[in-house]
Automatic annotation (TrEMBL):
Keyword Zinc: no
Pfam families the UniProt entry points to: ABC_tran (PF00005), oligo_HPY (PF08352)
CDD domains registered for this protein in UniProt: ABC_NikE_OppD_transporters (cd03257)
Keyword Secreted on entry: no
EC numbers: 7.2.2.11
Membrane topology classification: Peripheral membrane protein
Molecular functions per Gene Ontology: ATP binding
Domain ABC transporter stretches: 5-319
Reaction(s) catalysed (UniProt annotation): Ni(2+)(out) + ATP + H2O = Ni(2+)(in) + ADP + phosphate + H(+)
Protein name: Nickel import system ATP-binding protein NikD
Localization of this protein: Cell inner membrane
Keywords associated with the record: ATP-binding, Cell membrane, Ion transport, Membrane, Nucleotide-binding, Translocase, Transport
Amino acid sequence: MGKIIEAIDLTTHFYTYEGVVKALDKVCISVDHGTTFGLVGESGCGKSVTVRSMMRIIQEPGRIEGGKVLFFPTEGANEKAVDLLSKSEAWMQTLRGDRISMIFQEPNAALNPIMRVGDQVAESFIFHRKRSMSKKILEDLGHPETRVFPGTRRLQKALYAIASQTPNALSLRISRKIPLLRRWEKRIKREAFRRATEIIGHLGIAHPEEVARSYPHNLSGGMKQRIVIAIALACKPDLLIADEATSNLDVTVQAQILDLLKELKKTEISSILMITHDLGVVAETCDRVGVMYAGTLCEEADVKELFTDPKHPYTVALLASVPRFHQEGELKTIEGVVPNLVHPPSGCRFHPRCAHVMKRCKVEVPELINVGEKHKVACHLYDSKGESDA
Ligand SMILES: Nc1ncnc2c1ncn2[C@@H]1O[C@H](COP(=O)(O)OP(=O)(O)OP(=O)(O)O)[C@@H](O)[C@H]1O
Ligand code: NI
């Protein structure tokens, strides 16, 4: 199982009036093909900035200061990796929403309020799967039952074939000017809407035809988030990045959407990178987990291992702060406050709140090291000199 995406030493700063916010400091994470990776941590620890930096959608006053983001387009072919930070913005634009889709917390921001939701999903199909749809239409034209203007079937087929070779907005615009091709455009749109309705139906929505014809304001939050997922899936992404995609929904709908993502993971999407601050969600959905603290990655492990054998004192504290049904007494909270990232603590950023703090934790930044076959931790308790000067 090879990697699909990997961030190496990703460092991002925000240049604000209060000073330089060191939001990410050499963050390393990697997601394998066919897996769901969960990124967890308290609010403000840099989860969103991490994935936004990886996709290069960090806005002013933010700036990616260093690191690499490797994308492995073909599974197992590591030599074909591309560094997304070295690519042009135009190149990135074709990658985003094509090989990699993103969904966010707020579905309204992703939907156009004055367009039928079915058309919005259809548009994504037209954009990304025009070739396959054109093929289907050409096949249909071959059927004697398909009605065409007498004597133009061969000409139409030839023209459609040419138009379908360049699946972009320009070819649609040109084809609109040629009367015969205008029909092809109509057919493409009809086929796209049909597929949009189909995928909406697959997402567990009753009466998909009716829903496809509605506008966003007619739909509930959960329904809108499903439509956003449908748009994201229309391009058959290799990687889906979901940033708190279910946090705004009520618990039942949240569970439905998570089940849906799990189901889709088997059939439609190869890999998922999911941000959440809900450890219950992680336990339910993820194969691997990365724990972030104050702009650094402090631990990464398989989900079961992380829950049963957490190493980093922050992970231990985070797990202890989760309410359990049978827990006696008070809920533990982590002592101290999340640090200000303009002046982050020296050494290990967690040291002011750590119960096991040692002298060197205040001066030396711990490196992410292997403590098990697939278990990494950035903590001086586990590197070779660990206990010697405790
Ligand atoms: N536009 C910005 N200007 C200045 N600082 C920013 C900006 N965006 C993010 N930051 C800083 O980057 C840090 C990480 O923010 P980020 O949104 O990644 O946190 P998060 O882990 O996603 O939190 P949450 O769970 O609340 O979404 C925060 O400390 C924040 O102050
Ligand atoms: Ni966030």
